[in-house]
């Protein structure tokens, strides 16, 4: 395989959703820098809670940045959780650039509330934009790649999906039951997709980024950094991993979950059985379960909500 490490995505076409600001913007610019033609999707609403009127401004500004740097880009305004919009987005990429090769799902909103106070609309809207939005674009991209593979006699095609989850799906994020549930669902969707599309040469992976954006301004407020010190939570630290996962070099990377921020990439291991308990007879009784489970969890009290610790992968 020819390994072009400077512009590995020349000849490829990418869609990046939610790309008008923050992480999506950084990812779109990175894919353009690596040679891909980019369809920049954003609904352009003013509020991170999904409020405000749709606007073409954010998507068009990012597309213009890519074009100004010598790349190719097209802006698209629309709600990716709408099935017809998602279908049209994939069709726009194919009609404009001849094919779709890369899908980066990033669009999302926040409507935080404790579980005992959350309204039905606050739940539904966040699940819709994050989880259904990821599914809608994936559904039509997957159909495109399946048809391309069939047209090629069943051979593999270059298809890459990079979905955006969060460590909230692992830690629970107490004030975000809707967001945590949506992000957990995105992991499940991605792993299912990875298994379903592998035979077509398509990979699907998940990133859990930590980045200072409009979405995380309450979690990661502006840092007081020295002028010569880079911000470890800049979206610029996340975009290179997305570029790599979108590339031909990442052919063997499929169904993986990554945590990424500030010069660090961690691979999240699949869940493993922590302990196995066997009944003395054929069926557990209440007293037997109490004698086994109560002391087990008493010794580990609080571990389920401990802060996440990840291993760093660094050069050297």
From TrEMBL:
Pfam families: adh_short. Residues 12-238 form the Ketoreductase domain. GO terms for molecular function: oxidoreductase activity. The keyword Oxidoreductase applies. InterPro entries: KR_dom (IPR057326), NAD(P)-bd_dom_sf (IPR036291), Peroxisomal_Beta-Oxidation (IPR051687), Sc_DH/Rdtase_CS (IPR020904), SDR_fam (IPR002347). SUPFAM superfamilies: NAD(P)-binding Rossmann-fold domains. Keywords: Oxidoreductase. Coiled coil: none annotated. Signal peptide: none annotated. The keyword Metal-binding does not apply. Belongs to the short-chain dehydrogenases/reductases (SDR) family. This is 3-oxoacyl-(Acyl-carrier-protein) reductase. It comes from Streptomyces himastatinicus ATCC 53653.
């Amino acid at each position: 395989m020819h390994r072009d490490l400077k512009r590995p995505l020349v000849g490829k076409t990418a869609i990046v959703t939610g790309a008008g600001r923050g992480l999506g913007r950084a990812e779109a610019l990175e894919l353009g820098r690596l040679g891909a033609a980019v369809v920049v999707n954003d609904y352009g609403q003013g509020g991170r809670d999904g409020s405000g009127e749709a606007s073409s401004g954010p998507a068009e500004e990012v597309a213009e940045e890519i074009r100004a740097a010598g790349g190719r880009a097209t802006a698209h305004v629309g709600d990716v959780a709408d099935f017809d919009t998602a279908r049209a987005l994939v069709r726009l990429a194919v009609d404009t650039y001849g094919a779709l090769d890369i899908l980066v799902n990033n669009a999302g909103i926040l409507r935080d509330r404790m579980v005992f106070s959350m309204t039905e609309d606050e739940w539904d809207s966040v699940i819709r934009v994050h989880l259904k939005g990821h599914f809608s674009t994936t559904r039509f991209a997957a159909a495109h790649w399946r048809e391309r593979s069939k047209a090629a006699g069943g051979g593999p095609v270059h298809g890459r999906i990079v979905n955006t989850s969060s460590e909230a799906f692992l830690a629970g994020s107490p004030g975000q039951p809707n967001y945590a549930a949506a992000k957990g669902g995105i992991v499940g969707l991605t792993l299912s997709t990875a298994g379903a599309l592998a035979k077509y040469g398509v990979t699907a992976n998940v990133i859990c980024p930590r980045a200072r954006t409009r979405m995380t301004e309450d979690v990661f407020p502006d840092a007081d950094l020295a002028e010569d010190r880079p911000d470890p939570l800049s979206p610029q630290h996340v975009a290179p991993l997305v570029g790599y996962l979108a590339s031909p070099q990442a052919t063997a990377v499929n169904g993986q979950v990554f945590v990424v921020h500030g010069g660090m990439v961690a691979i999240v291991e699949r869940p493993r059985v922590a302990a196995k308990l066997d009944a003395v007879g054929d069926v557990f009784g209440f007293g037997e379960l109490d004698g086994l489970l109560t002391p087990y969890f008493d010794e580990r009290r609080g571990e389920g909500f401990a802060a996440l610790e990840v291993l760093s992968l660094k050069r050297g």
